[in-house]
């Protein structure tokens, strides 16, 4: 008798909880790769979405780094426990693009009844995450580009009021700064994103054949035959002369810290660091940003986007995709873009978002002034085949090979040509291996 | 009379073994099997394709000069860290065994480092040895680049050997001290009465009696130095500058997890496994002969 009652009660309780669950919000996860202040900013974006409506709920746990976000998502995907959305950084794009693990952005939005004006995304940003026909596969999210940071106070001492426009000017300014007693005129590191990728794009130099890989998986690196070689020679000469100094976290301060502390007077890094410099520099220090310099006599093309995009993964339910579409629609709204750019140093990714920021007077405020230059740099020209982006397999390994080569070259262990040639050869082996792994797959 | 206790039925024994076998299977044979499969195929990270590659992955690994560099550096690291960790541990254990003043405090403190996780040790050493902010900053002011592991590969190697040995020193110390304390005092005292000094006694009595412990520690230290160095490297040098501290295990991590080349990393881990097995075999075959257990 007792047992009968108990069973009945349990069944009733189960029924009730089932009914309650039906009224609960649809929950999805976004795995992000940002941490610290930027990680909290993503969580705030998710919270704003949760507060804006009652139907869906998104949670955005960080995975510790960009790499781990991809690694963890792969492991989870293989175990069929993947999140609905994952944040994937620029270099992780191609592996995902060639897989059947994702739902293309356009398909997701169409199936869930959203009409998106895809041309509203800045072409320099969208092309990085689109197929060769320009159809977006993932949603641009945290986007940046590289800027040139310069210390106005130090420049005043040498009688300059403007940032250098060419590398020849950088050299002259650095020499003047050095004779004015500045120990570290310009901080550099081994970052291939600025030294190789941005440089090649804005100078219209290819990184690889087949339009930087957009034309097929059989592309080959060509950077040992471009202006990049002269540029690295130029940088090496500046290093030897003491005009440039290498600043790494391992030595005590990275380039951003070295610039913000006033130790180094120039550097180049992402616009995403604009906020960090503003927050960590002494209030009386005057500094500004400019577009990356070019070599004398070069016509500037658009720079490349950096950062990460949001991918929607396969194998989730209709409801979960509805939630994902609602979230992705939400973050592309101009108000969301204003919040995101205010909270972080990242740039808006849509034209309406940029317009909204301008109308709100965002770029007139002293602490944000200059960030629009990143967009000017991204839109400096029509997107050309070499400034569209980079679509190379194993790109994480290629970046590492180049980084190792730069560190050997700058340390004087190998000559510029030998170092770059060796890295190109090793990178091409990585590319051939990638091509074999995806044998029979076509780039769309 | 033989009075061994045996189970009458075999299945009870099997049942009692099952949890252990299950663990070994799940955490050793299964992953090893998967690695073996990937090593002979080309695995796509996001799934959806797996091309049979035969011996291609191994061919690629062995034809890669960077790989041989990593093998060479792993050897240097294994010898360096084993020599340092065992040598110092033995020295300290001998001192403690002689019960010099304050030995109890030393004894406790020398054991602690083993309880510190590798990442924590890595962070501590990165900070201590940072060229512009650490203890070497003052020396670098006098002589620039006197110590700069971010540029100088040799310095970086020293850094990871020291950081790694610091932890294993504690482990070895425990074993050496225990072994020393199990040597009958009567032996030491007798030879002392015969007029032999501490060094003589160490050379003629203690070290020979320590041989089995030394052999055990040698095998463990060499093996672990091949597979356990990851935490230290990842937190101090990231395998750099350039590839100066990219040991075999770190290369596997980078190629597999960061570079998403699952098959290349799988082939490398099979090679590493075989190498460690071979080294252990060599040690048992050639060094153990010289060890007397009684």
UniProtKB/TrEMBL annotation, chain A:
Keyword Protease set for record: no
Keywords assigned: Periplasm, Signal, Transport
Chief location: periplasm
Subcellular location: Periplasm
A Gene Ontology term for the protein's cellular component: periplasmic space
Domain of life: Bacteria
Cited Pfam families: SBP_bac_8
Record-linked InterPro entries: Bact_solute-bd_prot1, SBP
Signal peptide region: 1-22
Function noted in UniProt: Part of the ABC transporter complex UgpBAEC involved in sn-glycerol-3-phosphate (G3P) import. Binds G3P.
Subunit details: The complex is composed of two ATP-binding proteins (UgpC), two transmembrane proteins (UgpA and UgpE) and a solute-binding protein (UgpB).
Similarity comment: family membership: Belongs to the bacterial solute-binding protein 1 family.
Name of this protein: sn-glycerol-3-phosphate-binding periplasmic protein UgpB
Organism from which the protein derives: Microvirga flocculans
UniProtKB/TrEMBL annotation, chain B:
PROSITE patterns: ABC_TM1 (PS50928)
Membrane topology: Multi-pass membrane protein
TM stretches of this protein: 12-30, 70-96, 108-129, 154-180, 201-220, 265-287
InterPro entries: MetI-like, MetI-like_sf, UgpAE/MalFG_permease
GO biological process: transmembrane transport
Subcellular location: Cell inner membrane; Cell membrane
Keywords: Cell inner membrane, Cell membrane, Membrane, Transmembrane, Transmembrane helix, Transport
Protein name: sn-glycerol-3-phosphate transport system permease protein UgpA
PANTHER family given in the database record: BLL4140 PROTEIN, SN-GLYCEROL-3-PHOSPHATE TRANSPORT SYSTEM PERMEASE PROTEIN UGPA
Domain ABC transmembrane type-1, residue spans: 71-283
Main location class: membrane
């Amino acid at each position: 008798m007792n047992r009968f009652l108990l069973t009945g009660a349990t069944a009733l309780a189960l029924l009730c909880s089932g009914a309650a669950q039906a009224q609960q919000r649809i929950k999805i996860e976004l795995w992000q790769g940002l941490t610290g202040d930027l990680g909290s900013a993503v969580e705030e974006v998710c919270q704003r979405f949760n507060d804006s409506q009652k139907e869906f709920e998104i949670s955005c746990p960080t995975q510790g780094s960009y790499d781990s976000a991809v690694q963890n998502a792969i492991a989870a995907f293989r175990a069929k426990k993947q999140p609905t959305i994952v944040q994937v950084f620029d270099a992780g794009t191609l592996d995902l693009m060639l897989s059947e693990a994702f739902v293309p952005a356009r398909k997701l939005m169409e199936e869930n009844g959203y009409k998106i004006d895809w041309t509203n995304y800045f072409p320099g940003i969208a092309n990085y995450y689109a197929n060769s026909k320009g159809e977006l596969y993932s949603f641009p999210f945290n986007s940046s580009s590289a800027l040139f940071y310069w210390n106005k106070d130090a420049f005043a001492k040498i009688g300059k009021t403007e940032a250098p426009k060419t590398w020849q000017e950088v050299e002259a300014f650095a020499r003047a700064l050095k004779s004015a007693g500045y120990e570290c005129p310009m901080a550099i590191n081994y970052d291939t994103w600025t030294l190789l990728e941005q440089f090649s794009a804005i100078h219209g130099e290819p990184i690889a054949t087949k339009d930087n890989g957009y034309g097929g998986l059989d592309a080959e690196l060509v950077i040992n035959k471009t202006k990049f070689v002269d540029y690295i020679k130029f940088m090496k000469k500046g290093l030897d002369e003491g005009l440039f100094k290498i600043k790494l976290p391992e030595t005590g301060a990275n380039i951003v810290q070295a610039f913000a502390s006033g130790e180094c007077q120039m550097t180049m890094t992402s616009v995403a660091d604009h906020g960090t410099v503003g927050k960590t520099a002494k209030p009386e220090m005057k500094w500004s940003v400019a577009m990356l310099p070019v070599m004398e006599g070069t016509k500037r093309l658009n720079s490349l986007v950096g950062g990460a995009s949001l991918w929607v993964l396969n194998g989730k339910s209709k409801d979960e995709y509805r939630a994902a579409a609602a979230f992705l629609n939400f973050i592309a709204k101009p108000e969301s873009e204003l919040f995101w750019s205010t909270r972080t140093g990242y740039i808006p990714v849509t034209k309406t978002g940029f317009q909204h920021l301008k109308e709100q007077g965002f770029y007139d405020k002293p602490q944000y002034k200059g960030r629009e230059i990143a967009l000017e740099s991204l839109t400096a020209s029509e997107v050309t085949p070499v400034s569209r982006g980079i679509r190379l397999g194993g790109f994480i390994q290629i970046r590492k090979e180049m980084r190792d080569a730069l560190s050997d070259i700058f340390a004087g262990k190998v000559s510029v040509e030998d170092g770059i040639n060796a890295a190109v050869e090793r990178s091409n082996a990585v590319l051939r291996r990638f091509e074999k792994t995806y044998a029979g797959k076509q780039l769309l | 009379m033989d009075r061994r206790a045996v189970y009458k039925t075999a299945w009870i024994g099997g049942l009692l073994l099952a949890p252990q076998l299950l663990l070994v299977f799940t955490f050793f044979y299964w992953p090893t099997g998967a690695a073996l499969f990937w090593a002979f195929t080309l695995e796509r990270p996001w799934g959806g394709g797996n091309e049979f590659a035969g011996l291609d992955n191994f061919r690629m690994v062995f034809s890669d000069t960077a790989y041989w560099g990593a093998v060479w550096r792993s050897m240097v690291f294994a010898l360096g860290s084993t020599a340092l960790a065992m040598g110092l541990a033995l020295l300290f254990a001998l001192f403690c065994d002689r019960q010099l003043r304050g030995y109890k405090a030393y004894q406790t403190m020398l054991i602690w480092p083993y309880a510190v996780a590798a990442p924590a040790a890595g962070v501590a050493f990165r900070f201590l040895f940072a060229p512009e902010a650490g203890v070497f900053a003052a020396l670098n002011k006098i002589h620039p680049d006197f110590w700069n592991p971010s540029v100088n590969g040799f310095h970086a190697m020293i850094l990871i050997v020291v950081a790694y040995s610091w932890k294993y020193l504690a482990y070895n110390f425990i074993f050496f001290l225990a072994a020393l304390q199990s040597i009958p005092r009567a032996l030491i005292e007798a030879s002392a009465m015969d007029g032999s000094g501490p060094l003589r006694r160490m050379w003629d009595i203690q070290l020979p009696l320590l041989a089995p412990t030394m052999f055990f520690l040698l095998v463990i230290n060499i093996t672990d130095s091949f597979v356990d160095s990851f935490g230290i490297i990842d937190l101090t040098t990231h395998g750099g500058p350039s590839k100066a501290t990219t040991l075999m295990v770190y290369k596997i991590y980078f190629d597999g997890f960061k570079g998403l080349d699952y098959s290349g990393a799988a082939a490398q881990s099979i090679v590493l496994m075989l190498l460690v097995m071979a080294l252990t075999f060599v040690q048992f075959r050639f060094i153990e002969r010289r060890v007397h257990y009684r």
